[in-house]
From TrEMBL:
It comes from Piscinibacter gummiphilus. It catalyses: L-threonylcarbamoyladenylate + adenosine(37) in tRNA = N(6)-L-threonylcarbamoyladenosine(37) in tRNA + AMP + H(+). The lineage of its organism: Bacteria, Pseudomonadati, Pseudomonadota, Betaproteobacteria, Burkholderiales. One of its GO terms (biological process) is tRNA threonylcarbamoyladenosine modification. Its main location: cytoplasm. This is tRNA N6-adenosine threonylcarbamoyltransferase. It holds the Pfam family TsaD. GO terms for cellular component: cytoplasm. Its cofactor is Fe(2+). The gene is tsaD.
Length: 337
């Protein structure tokens, strides 16, 4: 079974072909990605209308490129998968429209994928894929969740952010510091030059006794510090605040992940989503997990942020376990799924 997957939920157009294997872990044949970051940078964030228009421009050429790289003819595709949600409605509609049109023209079924399930399963494309069950830390721009994962589709939510997501905390703090978009990578780069101990930032819900997160207070604390410094702010102040912000976010993510491992008694942790690309988060999780004989799995760095490979993969893994693709799911996108 060959699955073509299309991702267009936000500011990356991703297309991929995966092929099911007898092991139950599909193989990636090829993937291609176009990031709109440069286009949105001037506005300090994603402009939904521009995102939709750019997906329209990119998706067909990327599909052609991926099929050529995979050495697969369109007629050989068995199922066309797309991101059904959550995401920007107009952006999702582009991927859904193209996927459903292609499928209809080919007489093949379509399969709508939950974007977060794509992230969650993306480490299965790594050279050392995890085994079930595991604890998953899902950290993206819109979500921060800890989950117990027993199998594909068997997810138990252990805790989540009650306000901002971890990626959002990175992005909003970076904006307050006048850094570029997306904030996570730029803030992390600047933090390398800063002294985190120069500022004491809050770690809300750290001792709440549950696995929920809260990052809105952190953003407020960053704003307060930035306002206090006013026009006197120098590059070193900015680097120090960036370092303290990153440390606060990473500290909470690591401690809650360890608490989730303790609570479930599991010895495997999977980290997925854009913030999973953060070097400090990886280093600290690796160190804490090594102490506890816990194995940590990450997606390949290039597949941490949005991509088509994870969407094709999630569809193939679901279909291999009995999910049935449809012919009538058309434009049923779910922006707030
Ligand atoms: O998973 P993703 O690509 O998109 C969503 O589904 O949201 O995640 C994007 C988020 C953004 O908030 C971005 O700032 C953050 O991931 N991010 C990072 C890093 N790379 C991306 N945050 C911290 N450190 C990074 N290196
Ligand atoms: Zn994402």
């Amino acid at each position: 079974m060959k699955v073509l997957g299309v991702e267009s939920s936000c500011d990356e157009t991703g297309v991929a072909v995966v092929e099911a294997t007898p092991t139950g872990v599909p193989k990636l044949r090829a993937h291609a990605l176009h990031s709109q970051i440069d286009m949105h940078q001037a506005y300090g964030g994603v402009v939904p209308e521009l995102a939709s228009r750019d997906h329209i421009r990119r998706v067909v050429p990327l599909t052609r490129q991926v099929l050529a790289e995979a050495g697969v003819d369109l007629a050989e595709i068995d199922v066309v998968a797309f991101t059904r949600g959550p995401g920007l409605a107009g952006a999702l509609l582009v991927g859904a429209g193209v996927a459903c049109s292609l499928a209809a023209a080919l007489g093949k079924p379509v399969f709508g994928v939950h974007h977060l399930e794509g992230h969650l399963l993306s480490p299965f494309l790594a050279s050392d894929p995890p085994e079930f069950p595991f604890v998953a830390l899902l950290v993206s721009g819109g979500h921060t969740q800890l989950m117990r994962v027993d199998d594909v589709g068997q997810y138990e939510l252990l805790g989540e952010s009650i306000d901002d997501a971890a990626g959002e905390a990175f992005d909003k703090s970076a904006k307050l510091l006048g850094l570029g978009y997306p904030g996570g990578p730029v803030l992390a780069r600047l933090a390398a030059f800063g002294d985190a101990s120069a500022y004491s930032l809050p770690r809300p819900l750290l001792h709440s006794g549950n696995l929920d997160f809260s990052f809105a207070g952190l953003k407020t604390a960053v704003r307060t510090q930035v306002l206090k410094l006013g026009t006197n702010v120098c590059e070193q102040d900015k680097a120090n605040i960036a370092a303290a912000t990153q440390e606060a976010i990473v500290d909470v993510l690591v401690r809650k992940s360890i608490a989730a491992l303790k609570q479930t008694g599991l010895r495997r942790l999977v980290v997925a989503g854009g913030v999973g690309a953060n070097t400090m988060l990886r280093e600290q999780l690796n160190a804490q997990c090594a102490k506890r004989q816990v194995r940590v799995h990450y997606p390949e760095l290039a597949l941490c942020t949005d991509n088509g490979a994870m969407i094709a993969l999630a569809a193939a893994m679901r279909l291999q376990r009995g999910a049935v693709p449809g012919f009538d799911q058309g434009f049923d996108v779910r922006p707030r799924w």
